[in-house]
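The record is passed on directly below:
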Amino acid sequence: MSLLRLGFRPFYLLAGLAAIAVIGLWLLAFTGHLQFGHYLQGVFWHSHEMVFGFQTAVIAGFLFTAVRNWTGLPTPTGIMLGLIALLWIAARVLVVTGPVPLAVVVDVAFLPVVAIAVAIPIFRSKNARNVKIVGILIAMSLLHAGFHLALAGQLPAWLSRPSLFTFIDAVVVLFALVGGRVIPAFTRNAVPGSNPRHEKWLEVTAFGSLILIALVTLFGETMPLPSWLLLVLLLVAAVAHFLRLALWQPQLTVTNPLLWMMPLAYSWLPVALLLRALSTVAVVAPSSWIHALTMGALSSLMMAMMMRSALGHTGRALAASRADMSAFLLLQLAAITRVLAGTMDDYRVAAILSGTLWMLAFAIFLLRYAPMLVSARVDGKPG
């Protein structure tokens, strides 16, 4: 069965479907046309499904495929891959229908399973460079469990919010780690004369600031920290990631859409960090940085990576089609609209427009890529 030959196939398909379904249901609830939810309701369900549902599907699909290449050892395929995909699907259903204890167990189980599946080839191959990815997945698993336990009353209720936002911070660290590998590498390989590079001091600053931001987010409400600390960390991180991107020579990718999509996605990160810094002094609303980060940075890079890896791993040319560019640009419009929604006269209309643009972007993505994901490679190779 082609769909289960490699990890990107079922999980990119599921991520695309979830992107449309979750926002579609959320818009119906947002406009008062639908009431649903059992354990998680309203904005909690929306936030949970976009972060712990949609994003984790993309992460699983990418890592199951990438770790196989990095280590030369197998990751789940066939029946095992199908069972892991079913675990993710079951969590999406149970979160809505209950029963609550089963929903929590199934939902929380997914990321540890993914972590184990990628840890085995990483440790067997002594691939020390990627051990940090296992650590990030473990941290994400613990934060997800903390989110549920806080909502269930097993931990203080206020922990649900820092657990959610620290989880997003962990995804950002993973985003920056993977982006820092693939974006300069793709530019170097595709653009003659290019010389994208990394500076050690800048890498330490960029990742150190992100990790400190995550720690402040998680523990800031229980520790006596200076009020200005998070502001300074966010500004340092914003500058560091802007400089980091500049060193990768993104201007050299403008003639190749499949190349410029990724640095454009990464450019949202310093913007989101700056908006987050401004939100700490009440200059902008928190929703601005949240959506700049989740829709602009994370989802844009995820879409660009899904496109490139799906093309490459199905034996197709690494060239963006008009559909690819349309989907990606619609996603940018959706993110910009949502970030600016708080400044518009009619927030409700802006939010609905953003959600509609988002769904259209992923509908185009699915129309283009679903046939590839469910069929064999065009070059006859395995995978």
User: Anything to note?
Assistant: The longest helix spans residues 160-190.
